[in-house]
Amino acid sequence: MTAWWSGAVAYEVYVRSFADGDGDGIGDLVGLRSRLPVLAELGVDVVWITPFYPSPLLDGGYDVTDHRDVDRVYGGLPALDAVLADAHELGMRVVVDLVPNHTSSEHPWFRAARSSRDDPHRDLYVWRDPAPDGGPPNNWVSHFGGPAWTYDGATGQYWLHLFLPEQPDLNWAHPRVPDEFAATLTWWLERGVDGFRVDVAHGLVKDPQLRDNPRVLEVDTDADARTAWGAFEHRYDLDQEGAPGVYERWRSIADAYDALLVGEVYLLDPARVARYVREQRGLHSALCIPSVRTRWDARAIATMLRDSLATAAGNLAWVLSSHDDSRAPSRFGGGEEGRRRALAYLTLLAGLPGLLVVYQGDELGLEDVPVPVEHARDPIVVRSGRPAAGRDPVRTPMPWEPAEGFGFTTGEPWLPFGDRRAEDTVARQRGDPRSHWNRTRDLFRVRREVRDLRGPAPVTWLRLGDPVVAYRRGGAVVAANCGADPATLDLGAGFDVLYATAERCGTVGPVVELAPAEALVLRGRP
Ligand code: ISL
């Protein structure tokens, strides 16, 4: 039997920026509940909600103080229960974001751990004595800039944090940590969630000797966080041999509820990502990060798709955009051309086996919005003062209606809307059959209805790497012109047009000419 999530469309809700139900300028679960019918109409199967747990919100909620509760700012547990009930009523499933790599420094465990070297919670985190020179125990750096260690004067040791100092890493070698998270999984599954997106799924296990990472680049001491982080090969802090095995216990729990485990395995090598899903003993699926980092280039796109499929087949989640990376239209050049390319790229992803993941606003063709440093909320910017390095431009509030507050809030939005226009709004686009929203909805419908695109049919590459990227699945063909000029594809016969990103109807072939950034889904004629 095919898993319910195979072939499904997942929609990432960055809850703080999706819909504000109480006018405080911050998105919440009451607002999300009110917009579920529109997501169902769009053709969403799975709603992935980013963290809504109690949190000081230093990293958008990925700094958690209680893994089994919902912060009041989002409406508390009753608001989540209502989202679950309505989503299920609408035929959708809900996946929640679990953050097992670290907690907030305000979590009771860390507050206790920090109180004394002898506290029983101490070893739930990673503490080490200073190096002989008094500095950090090794050369690891944080994703967010600076060392991955902070010194605690009261107890004379450093604690490890791969992200903010206020996000101390949990010690997954301590048996209580896996036990606590097994109980947390069960707690949410009993509440009715349908699965988990696992944050930093590749980071839970660290080299037991905490060896220095090899430096691969010399960078300036004032380099931005991403550059400084990229100066090392992350051989000992991430993606350790034992990392995929952590999820075997989770798998037995999740399978008892027919629940999905999809890992954020933020690695650019498909072969490394495949280790987490190939044997199907741990995670069911992993976000294919190469799909959200590939530029608009036929050979790069074709190679990434072919290599990712070859390593992990249908156990990958194809990602168009996310709350961490530049939106597809902006990645692909911006403006109308960027939007056309994003839709063509989505068409290529939508025909593949596995989970398809879009990020709120992808259905509208939204681009990144510049956020001035004085309005920054991303800690990467707040701590460095460098807006270019931040993720806020992909996290600005959803534009629902062409009015004050864009239907997102009646209050002051927590992040600025920037230069959003009336034509960017759901209200405007839903009513226009040729809008990005409706073309996305049509594509989701074709993916759902065409059995060859939803089932286990293998992918046969027809064209790889020249302007046209094209593949066949059973009787269906998916093709996109990723070049700058019109390009032809010889289909060898006539095909019915099931979907087109531009105006087309009826049949095509044996030879079809594709405009730049045009994509088609075709079905062979009997
Ligand atoms: O964002 C990245 C690169 O652009 C990744 O390094 C990313 O920060 C990392 O893979 C983990 O991301 C996840 O955990 C972070 C949180 O800030 C991100 O929003 C989340 O997606 C810490 O919890």
How much helix is in the residues? 25-40%
Structural class: alpha/beta
Strand content: 15-25%
Poorly predicted ranges (pLDDT <50, ≥5 residues)?
none
Any idea what the shape is?
globular
> What's the count of strands?
19
Q: What order do the strands of the largest sheet run in, or round the barrel if closed?
A: 1-2-3-7-8-9-10-11
Distinct small molecules: 6-O-alpha-D-glucopyranosyl-D-fructose
| Major beta sheet summary | 8 strands, parallel, barrel
DSSP helix count?
A: 15
Between the first and last Cα atoms, what is the distance in angstroms? 28 Å
Over all CA atoms, what is the radius of gyration? Answer: 23 Å
Keywords:
about 525 residues; alpha/beta; six-stranded antiparallel sheet; 15 helices; binds 6-O-alpha-D-glucopyranosyl-D-fructose
What does this structure look like?
Helix content is about 25%, strand content about 15%. With about 525 residues, the protein is of the alpha/beta class. The strands form four sheets. An eight-stranded parallel barrel has the order 1-2-3-7-8-9-10-11. Strands 12-13-14-19-16-17 form a six-stranded antiparallel sheet. Strand 12 and strand 13 form a beta hairpin. It is globular. 6-O-alpha-D-glucopyranosyl-D-fructose binds next to loops.
